[in-house]
From TrEMBL:
This is Caffeoyl-CoA O-methyltransferase. Pfam families: Methyltransf_3. It comes from Malus baccata (Siberian crab apple). The keyword Hydrolase does not apply. GO terms for molecular function: metal ion binding; O-methyltransferase activity; S-adenosylmethionine-dependent methyltransferase activity.
Length: 175
């Protein structure tokens, strides 16, 4: 992400895994950036990438939360201090929760800023007829098709699907 161009200072990342996208975001943030709140239930996976984050000298930019994302996001919303305070959110967590994350992120991400959803093309299966979809892809395809349709019709965001990797949907919050 071109964080320097976007003047991003405060971000959320839901679903960190080994921290590749987290490291990329941390490296791209401006020097004056506050921090990245990185949320994942699996601390062990995050620790795999931690030496690379440390070697890059960006660990101080990361507030790592071992938790389910709903707990942290609900706390932010309930306390009211974080509403509309994030410049960017990257979502790569449990696909069946993307719709619920979207509801919460619309309260937390500033108007005019971006929410990015990873894996929205789901191995290309979102464009395949049902009979061509392999069994391993069934779990996520239903949720991603729902999300893609919802975002295309949601007049609160302007969205674009980028066909890199496994698909990335970028949503600019309009209101």
């Amino acid at each position: 992400m071109p964080m320097k161009v976007m003047n991003v200072k405060k971000t959320l990342e839901l679903g960190v895994f080994t921290g590749y996208s987290l490291l990329t975001t941390a490296l791209a943030l401006l020097l004056m950036a506050k921090y990245i709140t990185a949320i994942d239930v699996d601390k062990e996976a995050y620790e795999v990438g931690l030496p690379f984050i440390q070697k890059a000298g960006v660990e101080h930019k990361i507030n790592s939360c071992q938790s389910d994302a709903f707990t942290v996001l609900n706390d932010f919303i309930t306390k009211g201090e974080e509403e509309g305070s994030f410049d960017f959110a990257f979502v790569d967590a449990d696909k069946d929760s993307y719709m619920e994350y979207h509801k919460q992120l619309m309260k937390l991400v500033k108007v005019g800023e971006i929410i990015a959803y990873d894996n929205t093309l789901w191995f290309g299966t979102v464009a395949e007829p049902e009979e061509n979809v392999q069994e391993f892809a069934w779990k996520g395809i239903k949720y991603l098709l729902e999300l893609n349709s919802f975002l295309a019709a949601d007049d609160r965001v302007e969205s674009a699907v980028v066909s890199i990797g496994d698909g990335l949907t970028l949503c600019t919050r309009l209101c």
